[in-house]
Amino acid sequence: MTASNSQQQKMKAKRQRILDEAIELFSEHGYNDTTIAKVAKASGISFGSVFTYFSTKEELFHCAVIEPLGQITDVMMNFDPEAEDPLAELERIVKTHIKLFAKLSTYLSLVVQVIGHHSHFTEQFEELNRFHDAFCLKLSKLIEKGQLKGQLIQTDSMYAAYAYMSLLLGLRLMRIDNFDHEIWEQFVPFALNLFGPAR
Fold it and tell me: Could you tell me if residue 131 is left (phi over 0), alpha (psi between -120 and 50 degrees) or otherwise beta?
């Protein structure tokens, strides 16, 4: 029997609630100290209900790491590497990316766990690494366009992209300020300087 639209929406919302609580718990306590029972309790559902949506703890962890990456990718990759004004495009995306990362404290703590234990979480690490490499490659093209136009000094565009990604990650992990704090805007010119503006 097919579930009604209302039932489907309720199931979707319950699954997301489980996933959100799992991200919080995995981020704070790590993989080993996070149990399905703890996730169920935090989600306000029964132990068995978790398995309606996630067959194993391993699947739940995988989804906690990978599913948010889709939305993050959409925002991070939303720029034109062939923009007519590369410096203006860089400034636009830096503002967008810093605002995004300011909201990702919990999730990024989970990402750091995967990176730090990549030999244990190989599948998740490979997915994260693919995103990182694709983003840096696309960003390097925009940097190169800026260099060709004389807006940016000549540097290694891939290293500049790597440095930028490291800055975004480090800022959010080292700052405890709320995402809507005005301090985040103050980092924009420092991030732009990584690309070597000529002016």
Answer: alpha
